[in-house]
Amino acid sequence: MLFGDFHQFPPVSRPKLALYHPPSQNKHALLAHEIYKHFTTVVILRRQNQVKDTRWMGLLHNLCEGVCTGDNMDIIKSILLTNGEADVPDFGSPPWFDAVLVTSQQVVKDIWNRRALHKHSALCGNVVYLSVGEDHILEGNTVQDPTLWEQVVIAGASVEDTGRLAEHVELAAGMRAMVLLNISTDAELANGMRGTIDEILLDPRDTKSHTQDKHGQCVLRFPPVLIKF
Fold this sequence. Notes:
alpha+beta, two-stranded antiparallel ribbon, 5 helices, 10 strands, 14% strand, extended
């Protein structure tokens, strides 16, 4: 049984063609094609039935269109945490204690993740490491440090060119994380996979001493050798 958008994964060995058509003679593609042909039933979800409140659905629709009414604004104001009449949940108890935020806003997501990580660190006592990214140039089988000119080019690259990689990443043992790229579908390291960081193995050059920033994080000079996920 397959869940989700199966077609987001490129066909085996022929990523630029339609799914397994025309057929490839590659042994992996042939095997995958035979497995794929055994699927005979497809269930397509065409309508979201979890929310049946017509007033709330009207609010969501108007928000998407940018045409909120006075009634819509009353609904929004009624659920603001700063509203004295709002039913404010206890954020110190389940399920709010470790709630997951779903948002399309990158800035909001970053703030939420940062505060959630430091909350986790305060409760568990695990050290928060600040790992700064490194740039290298791969020429053949040789990895080299970028020249000054190459550093200038990298610094001016757009977020699309850099794959939206952050300049630094905050890490701590026990923190939850999500894979955002299809790194290796065979190893189940695919976009959307979630897990917990079990262990962080530091670079030997970073094990003797650390520099702490104003937030108490340990600033690493080199990326970790291994992150067990």
